[in-house]
Every structure is written in C-alpha cells, then in structure tokens.
Amino acid sequence: MRSFVAIEMPAPVVRDLARLQAAIPVGRIVAPENLHLTLTFLGDQSEAMLEEVHFALETLRLKAFDLTLSGLAAFGDPPLSLHAGVEASPALIDLQSRVRSRLHGIGLAGERRRFAPHVTLARFGKGATPDEVGRLGRFLAAHGDLRLPPARITGFGLYESILTEEGPFYELLASYPLG
Description:
By secondary structure, the chain is of the alpha+beta class. It contains four helices and ten strands. The strands form three sheets. The protein has a four-stranded antiparallel beta sheet, covered by helices on one side. Strands 2-7-6-5 form a four-stranded antiparallel beta sheet, with no helix packed on it. A two-stranded antiparallel sheet has the order 4-8. It comes from Albidovulum denitrificans.
C-alpha cells in the first residue's frame, strides 16, 4: 500500500486555503479534503509493515502545537506544483524528527531529502507551460504573501494513498493524538 505519515489541516485552514484555491488560474487543484502536511512518505509498504509503523507511532507522546502557514511558492522548473509554506517551528521539526526516528528503528529509511514543510495546493502534471508560468507568476505576485492565523495541531495520522482516475484519495489508517 502506498502510504505516508501526515498532519491533516484543521477546518479553518482548509476553509481559508479552499478560498485561495478558487483563484488559482492553472493546474489541477488538490481537493480540500486532501490538504495535508506530509511528515514522511513511506512509499509502497505491506500490510505487515504498516502494522509495525502503527505500533512504532502509537506510543509517541508529544504536546499539541500551533502551526502557521506563510507564503506561496512553486516547486520545480518548470513548476510541478504550487504550495503554501509552513513555518518550521521547533515543535513541528521535533514531531517530524521523532516520526522518522521511530520509522528508522523498524527498518524504514524514509526520504533522504531535507524536510521542507508545505501544503500542496495544485499540481501541474509534467510541468507548467510557458503561458501557465506567466499566469502563475501573476497569481503569486498577488497572493504570495499569504499568512494564515496559527492553527492548533492536536494529532497526526498514517494514511494510504489510493490513486484513481479522478485523482488521489487518502484513507486514514490510524490517528495519533498530541497532548
């Protein structure tokens, strides 16, 4: 099963991002119910391994914390996706680090790239065309200074990513509260 560990966005953040997404002039918009912050991507894993992941994460005890989304940017050249940046607070970095450490402890190496917290808002397939890059540039000039009020994060989850013709569907396999 294709899987990942992520923070689901709280309802007020989803509401604000969905309003912003309505103005995005290009790309495939990520469905509001799919908005999340990936802590680590696990790739294809067996059911047995996902059970081990669950057992490794269920004993993780950390405090709830505030998350702030700030700024918009595009990944890639030409752009492959548009995302809202997430401020890398010490609590967020600690959560991500501990999740990766737990997974490393059960033999999952995880991603090698540096953690760059973000929420993907739109995707551009194989990359934005020159015309789309221009329209995206104008959108970023108008909205790139996004800053949402802090949102309380009270948990994270283990998800399965199910790819369909209409786009991905994310099923929550297990949730882990933050105190």
